[in-house]
């Protein structure tokens, strides 16, 4: 009917309205609407879920399984296999775990008690590759309210030296510091929630 109207009255205000409606619009007086083809939504890729530890971690096995990979160079998917390896020492009672973390690398995790139910977590790694200078790594961590905190600088009573070895204790609470030849350089004594440096004479 709009096209018939336009054939008789091709000009004028109402002709413009009829022309818009004949084209499929619904409005007049400059308010005609164009048909809109919806744009398909782009597929979204779900982000990988973040590893969230339980509310409380109570022993060295728990901490080992949930330590962030930036502090423990063992992929999370491989840690259960490390625990079941016959060469791994897992001493839950004494808060001690030790394993071969590479062909020439050894890693130890040890817990030091703080307030009831909380721990200072120490992770020590030693690289003994004969083709490279021997080196070590040592980090101290605390876990609370779903967050990991690196407290290494606040915990060590002296600057960290990667040329030294830091032997975490399985029995007792003293960290023995040696040079690459195995000679004792100093000891770190754990007393009242802090380490005290005891030089070797």
Structural summary, described in words:
The protein is of the alpha+beta class and 201 residues long. Helix content is 17%, strand content 31%. The protein has 5 helices and 10 strands; from the N terminus they run ααααββββββαββββ. The protein has helices spanning 2-8, 13-22, 60-66, 79-84, 152-155; strands at 89-91, 96-102, 105-113, 119-127, 135-144, 147-150, 165-167, 175-178, 184-191, 194-199. The strands form 2 sheets. Strands 1-2-3-4-5-6 form a 6-stranded antiparallel beta sheet. Strand 4 and strand 5 (135-144) form a beta hairpin. Helix 1 packs antiparallel against helix 2.
Keywords:
about 200 residues, alpha+beta, 4-stranded antiparallel β-sheet, globular
What is the strand arrangement across the widest sheet? 1-2-3-4-5-6
What's the SSE pattern? HHHHEEEEEEHEEEE
Number of strands: 10
**Major beta-sheet overview:** 6 strands, antiparallel
Rg of Cα set: 34 Å
* Structural class label: alpha+beta
Helicity, as a percent range: 10-25%
Poorly predicted runs: 25-49
Strand content: 25-35%
What value does the average pLDDT take?
80
Shape: globular
The DSSP helix count reads 5
Rounded to the nearest angstrom, the distance between the terminal CA atoms is 109 Å
Short overview:
The protein has five helices and ten strands. It has 201 residues and is of the alpha+beta class.
Walk me through the topology.
Blueprint lengths: L1 H7 L4 H10 L37 H7 L12 H6 L4 E3 L4 E7 L2 E9 L5 E9 L7 E10 L2 E4 L1 H4 L9 E3 L7 E4 L5 E8 L2 E6 L2
Antiparallel strand pairs: 1-2, 2-3, 3-4, 4-5, 5-6, 7-8, 8-9, 9-10
Helix pairs in contact: 1-2
